[in-house]
Write a structure and sequence with these properties.
By secondary structure, this protein is an alpha+beta fold. Helices cover 50% and strands 19% of the residues. The N terminus is likely disordered.
């Protein structure tokens, strides 16, 4: 695996979290989940408190009603005087939605007055004189006055009061006074309290969700900026991450990432230095080999030996070319580009000068090389890019060199500059044999050649792509009509 592929793999592993998980969503869930539990607990507690206090108020009313009713029943001798006018009974039973039912019995269980369907107190409630106690029950309610039909079952809350009266022959007698109230009104009150309590709390949950979502977004903003900084980087950008912009909780992670990036950067730099040093060391012996080969060819008349020496000279020439390409590839390293001066470059004049330099070579090869460039509108701004002139010249030189070498005698090469709003395209097209469709994507790889002709080493287009990428651009190969190849270099303009 080469250095760039290794760095791409490392940066992929540095992506912060998989796409199917969201730290923000998890924080919102874990913050809102206790709020939901508290909402439910608060609703239950509120309902129980409402039931408790409403029952206390209702029981107090029932207790008072039992004592008032008890005062209307007066002992006389061995009997009871009931002073309970019909009008008072009608007042108690007038409201069909909140009716009071009553019963007086003595001894307890022997009906005297009221509604004899009121159930007796439970057996587990021992009688307590002059102290009311309360229980729930069910009675058969008669139809309202003026109507006919069977009664219906009604759930009621009952207050029972045992009162003593008379002691004939030394034996005390008891009177039981019971007052019951329909529970429907009370249940409506319970429901109303529950709804009035939970509805505002329910409205607060979406508001709380929005507040928590916005708050977590603001809190995670530095982490998101850090993630975008990593995601937006080129795979060959190994500069340290900005630790100052990282949240306190992830600074240790950023430090670890910076240490990893530093290690990778040192490894890549060592590899580049090795290539550059090896290339420099090989240039001298190869130059000596070519010189000695030339001297040997001049000193012999043996045709077979001359042919072998020429093959040696061709191998030395190819080796020298390979070393020159390796040196240029090392020079196109990102660190080298960043260390170089990037300056505004007038593109039209720059390309025209390079084309003019190659015209004599094209004429010797029998190739028609020209530049088809429309003149810019009068008064328009000059077409400029931000570039390293030395490296960009090397990229265009490689493209033109390949075009002249492989187009063939009698061919044509045309160079055009096509600007648009954000980019400028340098298009170099020829009518040569072109490249097979299956090789269009492979020829940018190092040491890959689309043909066995010539003395190339398969690094020219790899160098072109490396240099164009360092300038923030792209390079594409396209088929030309009716045959040939178009090299399209896109660079951002300024």
């Amino acid at each position: 695996m080469d250095g760039r592929a290794e760095r791409r793999g490392i940066l992929r592993r540095l992506r912060i979290g998989p796409r199917n998980q969201s730290l923000r969503r998890q924080l919102v869930i874990w913050v809102l989940l206790p709020q939901l539990v508290l909402w439910l607990a608060g609703g239950i507690a509120t309902y129980r408190l409402a039931v408790r206090y409403v029952n206390q108020a209702a029981d107090a009313t029932l207790s008072q009603a039992t004592r008032v009713l008890a005062r209307r029943v007066k002992p006389i001798g061995n009997g009871l005087l009931i002073d309970f006018p019909r009008a008072a009974q009608e007042v108690l039973e007038a409201d069909p939605n909140d009716r009071l039912f009553y019963m007086v019995s003595t001894p307890p269980g022997e009906f005297i007055l009221g509604n004899n369907s009121i159930p007796m107190p439970p057996k587990d409630m021992p009688p307590r004189l002059n102290e009311p106690y309360f229980y729930d029950g069910e009675i058969i309610s008669p139809p309202p006055a003026g109507t006919h039909g069977p009664g219906h079952h009604v759930k009621v809350r009952i207050a029972a009061l045992y009162l003593p009266y008379g002691e004939p022959e030394g034996k005390q007698q008891w009177m039981l006074v019971q007052v019951a109230r329909d529970m429907a009104r009370r249940e409506n009150i319970f429901q109303g309290i529950l709804i009035d309590t939970l509805l505002p709390l329910s409205a607060l949950i979406p508001l709380m969700t929005i507040i928590v979502w916005v708050g977590t977004g603001a809190g995670l903003a530095p982490l998101l900026r850090l993630r975008k900084e990593v995601e937006g980087r080129s795979p060959i950008d190994l500069a340290p991450l900005q630790i100052e912009s990282a949240p306190q909780e992830v600074r240790s992670l950023v430090r670890a990432l910076n240490e990893l990036l530093a290690s990778v950067r040192q490894s890549v730099s060592a590899q580049k230095r090795f290539i550059a040093d090896a290339a420099h060391q090989l240039r001298t012996p190869l130059a000596g080999l070519k010189s000695q080969t030339a001297l040997a060819i001049a000193a012999t008349d043996d045709p077979a030996l001359i042919a072998r020496l020429k093959l040696v000279d061709q191998s030395a020439t190819r080796g020298a070319h390979l070393i020159a390409q390796l040196l240029m590839l090392a020079r196109a390293d990102p660190d080298a580009v960043m260390a170089s001066d990037m300056a505004p470059l007038p593109l039209r004049a720059f390309v025209q000068d390079i084309v003019a330099e190659f015209v004599p070579r094209a004429l010797r090869a029998g190739v028609d090389l020209g530049m088809d460039d429309d003149a810019p509108p009068e008064g328009s701004a000059p077409l400029q890019i931000e570039a390293n002139a030395l490296l960009l010249r090397e990229a265009l030189t490689n493209v033109l060199d390949n075009a002249i070498k492989y187009t063939g005698r009698g061919g044509e090469i045309t160079v055009r500059i096509e600007p648009d709003d954000a980019n400028v395209r340098i298009v170099i097209s020829d009518n040569g044999p072109g490249i097979a469709p299956g090789d269009l994507g492979r020829v940018f790889e190092r040491f890959v050649r689309a043909t066995d002709e010539g003395e190339g080493c398969g690094l020219g287009l790899a160098i072109v792509k490396e240099i164009v990428t360092q300038h923030g651009g792209t390079v594409d190969l396209q088929d030309a009509e009716p045959h040939g190849l178009r090299v399209v270099i896109r660079l951002p303009r300024i």
